[in-house]
Amino acid sequence: MAYERAEIATGAAVLAVALGFVVYAAQGAGLMQSPDSYPLTASFRSVEGITVGSDVRLAGVKVGTITELQLNPQTFFADAKILLRNDVLLPTDSSILISSEGLLGGNFVELLPGGALDNLAPGDEIEDTQGAVSLITLLLKFVGGEGDAPVEPAAP
Question: What predicted TM-score, i.e. pTM, was given to this entire model?
Answer without folding.
Answer: 0.64
